[in-house]
Fold these 2 entries.
Entry 1:
Amino acid sequence: MTNNGAKQELYHPTDEVKQNAFVKDDQAVREASYADPVKFWEDRANELLDWYEPWDKAMDNSNAPFYKWFVGAKTNIIHNAIDRHLDTQRKNKLAFIWIAEDGHAVSMSYFRLNREVSKFANVLKSMGVKKGDTVTIYMGRTLEQVIAMLATTKIGAIHSVVYGGFSTEALAERIEDARSRVLVTQDGSFHRGKVVNLKEIANEAVRRSGHVEHVVTLRRTGHEVEMVEGRDFWWHELMNLPVANGSCETEVMDAEDPLFILYTSGTTGKPKGVLHTHGGYQVQVATTLQYVFDLNEQDRWWCAADPGWITGHSYIVYGPLILGATSVIYEGAPDYPYPDRWWRIVEEYGVTVLYTAPTAIRGLMRFGEAWVKRHDTSSLRLLGTVGEPINPEAWRWYHEVVGGGRCPIMDTWWQTETGGFMITPMPTTPLKPGSGTKPFAGVIADVVDEEGNPVKPGEEGYLVLQHPWPGMLRTVWGDPERYRQQYWSTFEKQGWYTAGDSARKDDDGYFWIIGRIDDVIKVSGYRLGTAEIESALVAHKAVAEAAVIGVPDEVKGNVIHAFVILTQGIAQPEEAELKQFVRDEIGPIAVPAHIEFVEALPKTRSGKIMRRVLRATAMGEDPGDMSTLAD
Ligand code: PRX
């Protein structure tokens, strides 16, 4: 790629990138699709996927905002992700190359994957799991986590994956909300050579939540764990039972049947179970991955996220499998045992496309470019980022040092709720560092003011999605009113979806995401609700009231700063004790970087905490207009 030296950096794709691109003229494809998004998605549904039975209607808006896609069609995403490959040469192709933190690797062909998934599907069935039931999966970054997800889907059940970095209370709440009778977990996971005791957390969460009747535990670390007689079973023992044979029919589903729940943070303390369905989601993930990352039979795709987040669901598990790709999954930390770990993996496994988060790039950048230069990373042809705005400095480092100046960077904006990429370059798009460029084909987005008028170029406004898309969430699990309220009430008259992000567009119509405008903080790309952290803090006996905010951090994007009012008559605890308390309740990702003990919190007369004032205080800035402050 070349920088044309214009005032605002613009990076044009090289001829080689253009020649290889699946979409040769992305601007033309985008524009053609904007006129009729439904037709665009319908064409992709025909082109990229098989269906047991076709749909009667591509989109049904009769009960907005409860939109439906591919109504009447029969499908199962597993058919497209696994079953159909077994009749082709892909049967012998690697679906996954899994690399353990200690360096040993396991390769799994599509044929073998189908056998393992079928076996575990039979195990789940033998435990009474049926179509429509939920299965909670709380594991580390193992192949078995992926197998557990796929097996659940194969039999028509609904998976709810809880990220292995969450702790007891967070897990218990999610099990409870999903009403799962079966939990799949592992003894522990490895992190920088140390064991994270997942089973202990799982056992405590099961005790707190009720509901769970059976726990399947994968042996990964081999340390001693408590197994409850009659409730707990080892993965390897179940997989050796005669009932766990390698053939299992894939359940025929309606396009609109639930596929998975994935909990994410919002404005209240209770996490939202974002619900996705079989039909539309598969179209969204397959199309976006094909158009944006150009996957072909020779590629070795590495999405370095955790399968436990939406990025992993869409672009480690379902998207790549539907396209018949070979994916790399790495279990451990990027800088373990040395800061060249990732670059060693790129070299050893010939990774061609790498997709990660800005925080990981910034973290690795700190170690210096010598760690990258030690390895042959010339196999890379495309790069990607997701999760938060990427600062131009990190963009340039990624582009120059990692990508050798030849790999375009796909800065993909999307959310747990959107299922797949929404604003994103394609390989032929001229790039500006820090911008996700333009809405994907079939996606109608804009930046508007409070009344819904488009703002002028350069001005900040609300990022809205103005037309339904197939991978959209269908509801909040068990709480349709919250779905309507959270996403569709701000621009109810217009029928638009509000993302919760602020953004601006420039003179070329490029989108620039500024950040969240609700009470959500992005820490190292993880999405955390202020209310969740606050309620964990006030659960401590010494804390009467708490307010948390995000403050900018060079590597993590944001870190958490907590303001705490102490309970009268109780001695002030050590800061470390409160931090440990939050870690035990929610997990290490939610631990505040700073805790400040205060006498009062700034509130409006209606009692709402003025986070703007707190932010200014934390950063030593002028808080601005204080006229609405109660006291
Ligand atoms: O604020 C935006 C930010 O991440 C939020 C969605 O978080 P989550 O549901 O956890 O999904 C992350 C992975 C898809 C968005 O509302 N975000 C995501 N991608 C970008 C981004 N901000 C700027 N640029 C991005 N590329």
Entry 2:
Amino acid sequence: MSTQHKPKEVDINRLKLASEKRFAIVYSEWNPEIINRLLSGAISFFNQIGLDSNDIDKLKVPGSFELIFGCSKMQSLKKYDAIIAIGSIIKGETSHFRYISQSVFDGIKDLNINSNCPIVLCLLTDDNYNQAMDRSGGKFGNKGYDCAAAAAQMSII
Ligand code: DLZ
């Protein structure tokens, strides 16, 4: 079985319907190079459907753990049709990685259950820096781009 990641086709023409919608990105300050690459990927998708970077509201939070609170705050504004949470957690020497990753998945899942404003989770959980590079504009594409496309899709459901 191949383990190669194959990004799915994005139907830009259909997703252009989302250019009338409002989006926010909440992003973490940890691993800034990776985060910037993911943000660029997301913005490049929005540009393709006719939105400018300035059309997308952005909220910076200290770390991935704070994505939960940041997204909850943005949901409470009731302004957005979809929110993207961007973070990068890279495995270290301790088990912190596991606890933070699981908390973010659980926290964002809970927010999705309890609100009408969907949150798309763009959280890289990698064993090392190279893996994070591969998924943020490297050989496995750009997860930021993919998640922006997913947010557009969710906004027009
Ligand atoms: C503490 C911590 C560690 C060890 N690693 C990361 C990481 O790789 N990526 C990330 O986004 N945040 C990390 N953090 C910070 C936590 O997410 C959080 O900001 C702090 O525990 C404070 O609540």
